[in-house]
Amino acid sequence: MGKRRKGRPIDGVIIIDKGPGMTSNDVVQRTKRLFFAAKAGHTGSLDPLATGVLPVCLGESTKFSQYLLDADKTYESTFCFGRTTDTADADGKTVREADASQLTSKMLENAIAQYRGDIEQVPPMYSALKKDGQPLYKLAREGIEIEREARPVTIYRFELISLTVDGLLAKAKVLIACSKGTYVRSLAEDLGRDLEVGCHVETLRRIKAGPYAIEQAISLEDLEAKRGEQRAESLDELLLPVDSPVSILPKLCLDDDSGFYFMRGQAVMDTEVYRLGDEGDKVRVFQESGEFLGVGEITGEGSVSPKRLVATNSAS
Question: Rounded to two decimals, what is the model's pTM?
Answer without folding.
Answer: 0.90
